[in-house]
Amino acid sequence: MERPKDLHKRFDRDPSQGGTINGAFSAGVASTDAIRTRINRKRITFINDGATVVYLAKGSPAILNSGLRLNANGGSLIDEVDAMGYMYVGPWTAISTVACNVCFVEEF
Fold it and tell me: N or C terminus: fewer CB in 10 A for the chain?
């Protein structure tokens, strides 16, 4: 019996087949473009790697003390498909009182 063809390597390298992006960005004292629009996004996870609070916004400039808060030293947020099957696929912005690093994993 012939074994089925293993396509895992193709899926890992061909963005049209889905994949994962691991990365980071710096949130500063002005609203920063953090993540670009990705039409086929399925999930995005943010982890605050810094010692100050970071605020995230969907699609509009980020504002201190407003929007989605990532607590300091490991605060995290997961955005994924909701119960109705909808997913926010637009850009994300970030702001903080002091420049700090935010790690992310984007799955598509």
Answer: N
Distance of CA 92 to the CA centre of its chain: 8
Q: Answer yes or no: is 3 within a domain.
A: no
CATH of the domain at 55: 2.60.120.770
Rounded distance between C-alpha atoms, residue 78 and residue 20, angstroms: 14
pLDDT tens digit string along 14-69? 556 678 999 999 999 999 999 999 999 999 999 999 999 999 999 999 999 999 99
Tens digits of residue pLDDT in 22-33: 999 999 999 999
Name the domain count of the chain: 1
Q: What distance in Å separates the CA atoms of residue 81 and residue 57, rounded to the nearest whole number?
A: 17
Tokens linked to 93? 């912005």
Neighbours of 72 (CB within 10 A): 14
- In 3D, which of 88, 89, 103, 86 has the Cα closest to residue 25? 103
